[in-house]
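User: My collaborator and I are trying to settle a disagreement about how two of our proteins should look. Neither of us wants to argue from intuition anymore, so we agreed to look at predicted structures for both before our next call. Could you fold the first one, then the second, and keep them clearly separated?

Assistant: That sounds like a sensible way to settle it. I'll keep them separate. The first protein:
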Amino acid sequence: MINIPEIKLYGTDGCHKTHYYQLVLNETGLPYLFLDVEKDTNHAEELRGLYENRKLNFPTITIGTKKLRNPYKEELYKWLYKLIPSMTKIAHNKIDKKFRFTINGEEAWIDYVLKEGKMYLVHSEVPYDLRGRGIGKEMVLQTFEKLTEEGYEAVAVCSYIKAIAIRSEQWKTSIG
């Protein structure tokens, strides 16, 4: 199961910007909580607690512990992609023999060697500042999905890839 941080939208029904963010978040298909700060004093107090000045700064969106005050759509998507790796899709570059996972301009990848119809997954790499967010795990799982769709059999050579596959009910028997 993919770990999706809790997403909250603090705003009011009468605010056009709040309505805009509801549309944007609905577009993503991700679950989120709409917390009306005018109708519920608990929601208002929760929002005040996010700011040192204790003001009702809305609309505010939180993604886990990340707080975004009235962000541009591009900034919101940047943080969604960064904090929710499952939103990013793997790309298979057959020329370079890599599966690439690009998040906000930074690239994680898995190198492979193709031999006798089997894909030997030999190395995985996640940029340092993207580590610790589940990006490597999501990349491995999507790589297995993609190579299976393309008709290949996987052989996990890289110890990290092997560890992820072994922990996955779906892929533990297909690591070669």
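The second protein, kept apart from the first:
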Amino acid sequence: MKPQTYFRLALLFPYVLWGVCALILFTLQSIFEIPEAWNIVLMPMTFYVFGIILWLIPYTLLAISLGIRGRNKSTNTLRKIAFAAPILFFILMLIEVVLVSLPAKSIAEFTKEMLEQSAMLGVFSLVFGYLCVGIALGIFKFMQTKKLIAEETPIPLLET
């Protein structure tokens, strides 16, 4: 597999993680009553599962644009793009918050709502974004050591 192919497949990782989290959460809730102490442990998973309502469209736009942009790029460039992706995602989430908050009653109310929501969304989008990037890069490194990802061959220089 080429690094570019892995990069494009890794963009699907947040969707896969969402599916796994949703499966675990709903399975646990249907099998037995979850004790109160477990709510703290399951809270990040719950935020991620129900957060798809907010992050589905911005992340899908980001994944499509990064997938297109990642064509024929070097591994180092792909790594830089991957590290920038959570910040770009936060910007898209911020745009979404602004669009949702626009029908506010006043400028003060709009500013207050935007500051509160952007701080909360910023923390969650950056934490979950870098978690996904870290896991994807870890899998990439593992696959490189197992020789499942092809090494980049340098472009030969033309002699004149």
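Some points you might bring to the call about the second protein. DSSP finds six helices and no strands in the chain. The chain has one domain: 3-145.
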